[in-house]
Amino acid sequence: MSAETLPLLILTGISEGSEPERMVSSVRQAITLDLVERALTVPLLRPVIVSTNSEELAGQLSGLPIEVLVDPPGEPFHFGRRLSALMGRYGMARCFYMGGGAGSLFPAAAMADVARSMLSADQLLITNNFYSSDWAAFAPASVLQDQPLPETDNELAWILGEDAGLPIRELPRTAATQFDVDTPVDLLTLSVHPGVGRHTRACLEGMALDLSAIDAALPLMLDRDATILVAGRVSSATWSYMERETACSTRVLSEERGMRASGRQARGEVRSLLGYYLDAVGMQRLFEELATMAQALFLDNRVILAHRGLWPSAADRFHSDLRQPAQIQDPFLRELTEAAMAAPMPVVMGGHSLVAGGMYALIEAAWAWGHDVPRHVVPESY
């Protein structure tokens, strides 16, 4: 393998199941097609390798000058073992790994910058988020063999930087670096963002998505007299970005960050102030009172679910994200979704990604579609 190019390895896992789950899988496949097309415009990224469990995606990629490998049928998937095996198979001295749901807004120029930096370094880690990575470029690739192989890609950068000791470079936090597709609310976000690739745009346009709440909420981000409320697992970095990049005022209720990774959810220890208030006053009054504090609400409702000791099926959670209460089996989540849709302000509900990378992408989309308010801060690159 050439020492003058950086291998790009994309792992795209596809999940079957309910209709919303299949929708997410379809968009992840489309994102992969766009990523591959972008990568092929960057000569420094070679070879481009896609590993997937989807025969359909493999067929869509056939004919392109890339390597496509389909996961062995019936073999349990383990991220670290699969990544290690692929690096060994291709004899990689360096590796640029991307997850199939990541990079939907990551431009070719940024990919080229990563490649140039990696090819000029003997030891380096470049990632979008050191604490919870969606992609990572690193050298030497061999350092991973001396560490416990991560079960998910979110652990990859931490292991490479903290345990293997690679010098760490985290790119500026923007929509391009932070946005990742995990749940259907991310499809709503991508639908209003002008920066998606042609395959992703075509896929989204073929879906009957209810964008009414997002369409109503976005202009408020540019309204100096408006306030938006963001509640859930909101990081300080996201809050700082919101404060810097929106024209409106912001309220943030950040609680239960790391509830899953810390084991608090599994132990039934999640506690939410918003959840306690809902318990006390009921759903209708909850949204009525919140509407006196803000003109739009972006709610990570998984915190409220965990607070009540609930974790409805993926199908139910995803139907809630899509504003389809009639399809939800869990009575509490169905009622919560109905109340949110009837609230006296636009309410956008989803999981952690909504109040993380999703906020970066929504803010970018708001500025892209509304040009009547002067910016006071120049946005970061990427």
What does this structure look like?
- The chain has 382 residues and is of the alpha/beta class.
- It folds into two domains: 6-171, Spore Coat Polysaccharide Biosynthesis Protein SpsA, Chain A (Alpha-Beta Complex); 178-369, no CATH class.
- It has helices at residues 19-39, 55-61, 79-89, 108-119, 156-163, 175-178, 184-192, 198-205, 212-217, 236-245, 273-281, 283-290, 302-307, 314-321, 331-341, 357-369; strands at residues 6-12, 45-52, 67-70, 95-99, 124-127, 135-139, 168-170, 227-232, 249-254, 296-300, 347-350.
- Strands 3-2-1-4-6-5-7 form a seven-stranded mixed sheet, with helices on both faces.
- Helix 1 runs antiparallel to helix 8, helix 10 (236-245) runs parallel beside helix 16 and helix 11 packs across helix 12.
- It starts with 5 loop residues before the first strand and ends in a 13-residue tail after the last helix.
Question: How would you sum up this structure in a few lines?
Answer:
With about 375 residues, the chain is an alpha/beta fold. It is built from 16 helices and eleven strands.
Structural class: alpha/beta
How many angstroms does the end-to-end distance come to? 29 Å
Strand order of the largest sheet: 3-2-1-4-6-5-7
- Count the E strands: 11
SS strand fraction: 5-15%
Comma- or semicolon-separated keywords:
11 strands, four-stranded parallel beta sheet, 382 residues, 16 helices, seven-stranded mixed beta sheet, Spore Coat Polysaccharide Biosynthesis Protein SpsA, Chain A, alpha/beta
